[in-house]
Amino acid sequence: MEITETYRRNISIDRLSELPDSVLCYILSFLPTQKSVATSILSRRWRYLWTDVPNLYFNNENQGTIDRVLSLYNVRNIITFRLSDRIDCDDYQIGTWITFAIERNVQNLDIWRQSADVFLPRSLFTSKTLVDLRLHCCGEFPNIGSAVSLPLLKKLRLIFIRGHEFLPHLLSGCPVLEELVLYLSFEYRSFTISSPTIKTLVIDIYSDIRKDPDEMYYTGYSLEIDTPAIVYLQLFDSANYHIKFGSVASLTEASVYIQDYRNDFLYSRSVVEFIERLRNVRCLNLDLSHRAENIHSVFAARTISFRNVTKLEMTSDCRFLPKLLENANNLEILILREVC
């Protein structure tokens, strides 16, 4: 078949370069910054196009490379700034990059620094633009004093950050926070999460009590949750001796995993009282598979009503099932993972 001259001209056209800069920058915003910068070799037009991309994703670059990128960067309003734990640099330098992002009005900040003591600048806790903040293994909270104001922050994720005594103060400076995710190593005696706006709450509490439950027996450790607007709760707990849950009228879904290393009656009673507070949920995922003998005995002595539950997922032996089904008139879906 003869190829016409018009067809030859059409296939030689660079359609991508016909797009406006704003569209090209939007496309580049989905790439890691290293790959975005690499497009600068394509042509004269592309040479500095990456400097106007609103997202910065650093994965395995070294300190010198990141400094050069930031020195050429033009964007005054960063959408997302992300650093992975593969970055080769000192911990203090990460703090200067966080400051750079805050000064550029960053909206989403994601810092992952495995087993390190990152310098967290105080300006991080007074950002007027942050919407989503994620800190993974970034050492310890600084003494932020009274200066906490994050008026736009809606999502907060703290993964194994030390200095949890500052968290209540931090939450008090987040007036529109809707989602809180906490992964905690157990190093406190009592812990309170209080916020009138949180709708999604995920808590994973890791304790060394898992290593030797016979030697580590804590009776003073407690968790108190006061989140009246909560809709979704996910709790993995192996540490707290007492769990207190405030108003849960808006809660519709809960996923709870309790590890009873103590095998203690008072602790078991606290667990059952906590589960009773979940009676209004529609979807319940309950894992009582670990050493739950005393929890079962407390269950057996109580009348527990789950009249709103339509879906129940349970990991346990069958002893718990009759009690949970006794007053679950609206149940439609039951998933049982039996533990022998």
The unreliable regions are: 209-217
Radius of gyration: 26 Å
Main beta sheet, described? 12 strands, parallel
Overall helicity: 10-25%
Strands, count: 15
From the N-terminal CA to the C-terminal CA, the straight-line distance is: 72 Å
Question: Per DSSP, what share of the residues sits in E-state strands of 2 or more residues?
Answer: 15-25%
Shape: elongated
Compressed to H and E, one letter per element, the order equals HHHEHEHEEEHEEEEEEEHEHEHE
Describe it for me?
- With about 350 residues, the protein is an alpha/beta fold.
- It has a domain at about 180-340.
- Helix content is about 20%, strand content about 25%.
- It contains nine helices and 15 strands.
- The strands form two sheets. It has a twelve-stranded parallel sheet with strand order 1-2-3-4-5-6-8-10-12-13-14-15, with no helix packed on it. Strands 7-9-11 form a three-stranded parallel sheet.
- Helix 6 links the parallel strand 5 and strand 6 (about 180-185).
- It is elongated.
- Residues about 210-215 have low confidence and may be disordered.
- InterPro entries: F-box-like_dom_sf, F-box_AtFBL13-like, F-box_dom, FBL13/AtMIF1-like, LRR_FXL15/At3g58940/PEG3-like.
- It comes from Erythranthe guttata (Yellow monkey flower).
- It holds the Pfam family F-box.
- This is F-box domain-containing protein.
